[in-house]
Amino acid sequence: MNDIKKNRGPRYLYALADIVISLATSILSFLSFYGYQGFADNIVPILIYAASAATLTVVVFFIFRVYRILTRDIGLFDCLRIFFLSLFLQLVGLVVIVFVPQLPNFGDYVFTWLLSTAVVCFMHPSIRVLVRVTNIAHILTSKKQKVRTIVLGAGATGKVVIDESRRNKDNHNQIVAVVDDDPNKIGGLFANVPVKGPISDIAKIIDYTQAEEVIIAMSKISKERLHEIISLLNPCNVRVRRMPLISEMQGPNDKRVIDVDLDDLLSRDPIILDNTKINDMLHGNTVMVTGAGGSIGSELTRQIFNTHPKTLVLFDIYENSTYDIQMELVRRMREEHITDINLVTLIGSTYNDVRVEQIIKKYRPDYIYHAAAYKHVPLMEDSPQEAIRTNVIGTYNVARLADKYGVKKMVLVSTDKAVRPTNVMGATKRFAETIIQYYSEKSKNTKYAAVRFGNVLGSNGSVVPLFKKQIELGGPVTITDKNIIRYFMTIPEAVSLILQCGLFAEGGEIFILDMGKPVKIMDLAEKLIRQAGMVPGVDIEIVETGLRPGEKLYEELLLDTSTQEKTSNKRIFIEKKEAINTNLETDIVSASKAFDLEETKDIKVLLSSLIKTYKITENK
Hints:
By secondary structure, the protein is an alpha/beta fold. It is built from 20 helices and 22 strands.
């Protein structure tokens, strides 16, 4: 700490200014009282008094930490503190005058004292406020281009945003209006900015003020209300940012202005699942995650890690992302002094049955979460044999060996594209689901289940990273069809669901999540463009490219709450079980023939013969 350099220059400058104010006020007050001749006759006691008053001022101000006040942020409380300290010093001076005979009589001097006190109590805070006023004036008169901005919320958080825009020279916001629902505030001035409202009229207010950006400054609202406000802003060509909610704050002084995040783009409350029983299930056990380096797999490892398993086995074919999650968990173990978790990271493929058996035989996992898969729809249309190799044969290997070595539960990460599939990826995942249901009937040791959900915001294969990259490059943003819709959830939601369903699994279930209303991809693209501070169709074009092979306008989850079995969680349902294919071993042999075929069309035909619900499409 002694090596840290502190800039004490401003403190000494303010101390010098306080000395000058105190000396000048004392001398001038006596000069005005005595006149020139009387002042000259009493100059010695007057100078002693003035010097003593100036010295006492600096000492008292140091004791009460006045010189530690950052004048760039000086506020009313700081000014009042300086005012009352100055008044106290003047009262001490008055007492001295009463008891020093060489100084004027109290009764005759009181008017002059009151005048000098008013001057001192005004001057000491004023020189500090002047610095802030000068800084604000510099910011307001800066030639740097400002962004016309509306602040939503005429409260304490809104005041923070306005103050920051005025005092920070690097801030680009020019606050043109504050919008609030409180009728007592509408029509008034808030921090000298006009208050308009209600919030439901935000579109009209944006148009009237020609605002380019909106900052939501209401930290105490619910997520539901936040989503309502964002929905109101969606049609407006403005960038939307916000202050963090109280639940998101990293401390009492968190004053960040953050971009609207993926949860906000989802326009619904996040799904919160009770993880207490999950912790009880996994704590102290051995857990294996395949595909541990992927978007879902890495979040699975994080949440499983939090339950403190005895051993956590990370297994993936791709070394780079697997290394990243390994290093993340190793860092946590070091920083949090965690010593009760045996973290094992292994590279390999699930379609290498010898490698998979070596690992399961050695570590004997109690639970396996099977996230390893090829998920990219267009790529799998061109390489269907690899989708079969990983999504089908890989799942078969893990499921068979889980039964052989007595794994308690195996949970397959599936997809909504497995429902009446029109692409290779969906068909192979549907095949994987049948493998899980087959072994659920066959195994006496292991409980199997699959979890089916929609698209995951922010995952490696989702549209969000693609759109963001296209926006960074200046566009255009490409969508396959303006009417295409998808169900979305966030990565933490998806993983919580997988873990929760692992808890519910009793044998062969396919769990389905009530994901709410689907999202139009066109709307999502427009939101991301506005979030970047640009106008869709003006700054960034949105171009339709046409549906890709195997792609649907909408995906199905087959969620029918009237017929499907409910679980103890109102957002999770179980699909009605179908008859199990008893010729799985024969089908696996047949599927393996795809590796010898050269034409993708022939492989798709083979796959359609094994998965009857798969309809081959060749979209242009």
